[in-house]
Amino acid sequence: xxxxxxxxxxxxxxxxxxxxxxxxxxxxxxxxxxxxxxxxxxxxxxxxxxxxxxxxxxxxxxxxxxxxxxxxxxxxxxxxxxxxxxxxxxxxxxxxxxxxxxxxxxxxxxxxxxxxxxxxxxxxxxxxxxxxxxxxxxxxxxxxxxxxxxxxxxxxxxxxxxxxxxxxxxxxxxxxxxxxxxxxxxxxxxxxxxxxxxxxxxxxxxxxxxxxxxxxxxxxxxxxxxxxxxxxxxxxxxxxxxxxxxxxxxxxxxxxxxxxxxxxxxxxxxxxxxxxxxxxxxxxxxxxxxxxxxxxxxxxxxxxxxxxxxxxxxxx
Length: 316
Known about the structure:
Elements: H1 2-25, H2 27-49, H3 57-82, H4 84-105, H5 114-136, H6 140-143, H7 145-180, H8 186-211, H9 240-263, H10 268-275, H11 278-290, H12 296-314
Helix pairs in contact: 1-2, 1-3, 1-9, 1-10, 1-11, 2-3, 2-8, 2-9, 3-4, 3-7, 3-8, 4-5, 4-7, 4-10, 4-11, 5-10, 5-12, 8-9
């Protein structure tokens, strides 16, 4: 459970960072930059110290392609349209539901009991309560119906991609354990997933840039395309590469590694239900980074979610 909580923490601090990176370099470039840095770090470690994989490598590559290459890109594109609270709520909550459905109909060994489902539900209810004030004040009406609908659709794509990716990763690890009587190396699995993601991300970048000749996904919030090392001030730094690197550290490197670690002990539905706390954790981090003070309902939601996690922990 410690790994699942750490997953929630790292994915919690990621959305404000990802939002800043996207504003500075565009969501297509931001996705490629974060995944490339993560592959260099974890892939280098896996090559130097990892034992490798004798099987299921293709499963982990596909999981990464779906989760990071498609789902991650969709989430980054949803951020400016919905804001981090609503985009994160949709992605994390729907991903948990997808995993419950997958476990129920495809991977029976991961099927949750009625009690476990109830406690997962309590966690998600607490998250919804805590994020409600942010959703109501997100200015969705001013953005226009079309922009909001596109944002919701993108967040749903991200959620489904994440759910399928986590289900495949869990299935691959269970298969390896059954056939080799040993768990796979965590960092090796994480690096395989990232390689799958970065290949899709680069392909999308090349198609968007040179085939469709689009500017969306490459420009900053002001419509200009900035060099990765450019700087325009701001808190900590205004360099796009800094925020891209920080996004890689908190999300694909630390967050994904903890996710793989957690899935070696618990089903994807359980891990994702706890990881869904990420948007709640993002609130105090955003307060430090951007000065947004948490509303009272956030504290109520936090208490409800924590109670749900404690109850779930006791029945695992």
